[in-house]
Amino acid sequence: MKWLAAAAISVLAWPVLPAQAFADEQIYSYDPVSASARTLTDTGLSFQFERGLLGGVRIERVIQTGDRGEAELRQASEAELGPGGLKAVLGDERPVGALYEIRPEAEGRSFVHAVCPGAERAWLVIGPLERFHDLKIQAVGRDAGAAKARSCSSMDFGFYSDWRLPERKPPRPRFPIDGHG
Questions:
Q1: d(C-alpha 45, C-alpha 28), whole Å
Q2: Which residues, given as ranges, of the chain have pLDDT below 50?
Q3: Structure letter (DSSP) for residue 99
Q4: How many CB atoms lie under 10 A from the CB of residue 59?
Q5: Is position 64 within any domain?
């Protein structure tokens, strides 16, 4: 009977565990292909991301491949861009993927100025990160005092390589499962 109770507790506790404990963390590197991508970087960009259990992707940071430079990213809402969201900013151009804000901490502010000169804040619309597939990124920025964001550039990158980071182990339960403490 103890094993049945332990199994029931572990099944009930599973949804409470943080999703990132089971996420597959990876880095994909891309080489610049378009002129706008080469203007941003000669060495390419790498993206550190987590692929969740259900297949979703959460990008954590962008790294300038082969150089010193990185910025943390956070998922963003189109409402942050001002009236009309991405449609108002991109016009007839379709968004290529998910919207991420470049966080201004550390080297983030320099990255904002690099992808969107003159902008106080910047976002990246990042296409799907898929192994062996090229990547499109749209940069969007908002100047100080502006009511809405503006389109800055559209960049194309070619897939270069992938790296797997060490696996994170799920946390140990905080309560005894076998009843012995």
A1: 8
A2: 1-22
A3: E
A4: 20
A5: yes
What per-residue confidence (pLDDT) applies to 18? 47
123 assigned to some structural domain: yes
> Which two tokens mark 114?
């690099």
The helix or strand, by DSSP H or E, that contains position 54, with its residue range, turns out to be: none
Q: pTM of the full predicted structure?
A: 0.77
Q: Which domain holds residue 79?
A: 20-164
Report CA-CA distances (Å) from 61 to 1, 15, 27, 92, 145: 47, 26, 10, 28, 27
The answer to the question of residue 59 being in a domain is yes
Q: How far apart are CA 29 and CA 141, in angstroms?
A: 24
Tokens encoding 129:
């990160």
Place of tokens 């109770």: 5
In a domain, 174, yes or no: no
Q: Which residue has the tokens 């979703």?
A: 56
Measuring CA to CA, which residue among 180, 171, 173, 179 is closest to residue 10? Answer: 173
| pLDDT score for 132 | 94
Torsion of CA 147, 152, 158, 164, to 10 degrees: -40
